[in-house]
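A quick aside before the break. I want you to see a complete sequence-to-structure record at least once, exactly as it would be stored in a machine-readable document. Don't worry about memorizing anything.
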Amino acid sequence: NLGNFIDHFFSKNIWHLQGDSVLSENLEILSFSKQVDMIVDYTILDINNGKVIKGLYENIEKLSNGEEWYIKTQKFKVELNNFLENLFYGIDFPLNHDYDFDLSKILKAVECKFDIDQKTFAEKLIDYFSITRDFCGVKLFVLVNLKSYINEKELLDIYEYVFYNKIALLLIENQDRERFSDVEEIIVIDQDLCEF
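That is the input. The structure line, written in tokens, reads:
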């Protein structure tokens, strides 16, 4: 059954069906836990999960220390430190704070995150692919029973997007479903994990 297949899929930490296959890119074996994202439950898909937000903050921190933003970032830190010191004068006790703070602390305080509230399911999924690839280094998205959640037009839109943006998808379906596109390569695997 599908549950056993998924359990086998994850228990190996590499794509390993018949002993002669591995998941790799340019002859480098990929880390399943770091570079593969398996989506089973689409109702809890969180584009603003901790791993993504950590990657976003690291990216913004790096950008703020780059040539274009470094001086502006330092001026902002000086202004914020001055503001805090003036504000602290209103407290009857001596206060101290970190003068050379990471920008990520500010981003966390203001709850910086991706805005996807007004998007369709397919658009959110596309954003999830791009964001987790760019900020978390995910190389392959494994989607379980996606065709149960999405119509043909939305799936074709997703296929077009991932094709042009070189995003790798692997769809695992619990039944033999209609082929929606010529880009789909269908492999049927039985309960003994044999291809036919």
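Two observations worth writing down. The chain is about 45% helix and 10% strand. The two ends are 16 Å apart (CA to CA). We'll return to this after the break.
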